[in-house]
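Thread: quick sanity check before group meeting

JM: Hey all, I'm pulling together slides for Thursday and realized we never actually wrote out the predicted structure for the chain we discussed last week. Dropping the sequence here so it's in one place. If anyone has concerns about the input, flag it before I start.
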Amino acid sequence: MSDPQNSSSFAIGIAGCGGRMGRMLVSAVVEAGKAGAAVRLAGGSERQESGLVGRDLGEMAGIGALGVQASDDLDVLFSTSDVVIDFTAPVATTAHAKLAARHGTGLVIGTTGMTEADLAVVQDAARQAPIVFARNMSLGVNLLLSLVQQVSAALDEDYDIEVLEMHHRHKVDAPSGTALALGEAAATGRGVDLDAVADKVRDGITGERKRGDIGFATLRGGDVVGDHSVIFAAEGERIEIGHRASNRQVFSRGAVKAAFWLQGRAPGFYDMQDVLGLKKS
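JM (edit): ok, ran it. Output follows.
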């Protein structure tokens, strides 16, 4: 068994290490080391005002002390990590992308709620650092994205497309990033621009559904980790394909897989389809 804190190991840092996903990412990195991977936890970042700076990352994650403390010094985190994993917030993620570019550090981004302007900053940084961005890191969801694109390409506009998602009551963005990615996959399959056909809000007397639109429905409640389905509905039949996440470990495991994939990778803007080899040549 390799030592997860061996100084010669591949070094992964965690941005926002005290958050819900941050703690799971800490555990996932340590578990990868215990399973035999030559990986160590380089460090973790937290905002000074969080009250978590100086706390041991392992104790915060509930896995016992690791001798690695949370810091608010992002330059140190990016200079001492081979790859940083970031599931924070768009304003923080864009700053992290610039740091990745400055230090040439790999960056895995699972942050949701990213705007086109935010992504433009990340894509610019990817000219100097290898960056994986995905709205969902799970293997199952990325397989679903491929399936949705294939089904959409095979069916014409006689089939109405609806994307349905549900998340826990605390989620702040809607539709979810994964729902938007599914909409983009459906639009790509049809050869159309999602922005031109997306219908995200229905209220009151809306009139008939417009042929060719891709609709979105958002549900929030309880502790739902993430349910997504895509419905292709025509006269006389309906096709439904979907994915349900029962815990967030699927996201943290996917993010760590992406971090390993970035080892030795040239600067560029990548996604989980690249990581999982799902893109057609």
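AS: nice. The two ends are 37 Å apart (CA to CA). The chain has ten helices and twelve strands.
JM: adding both to the slides.
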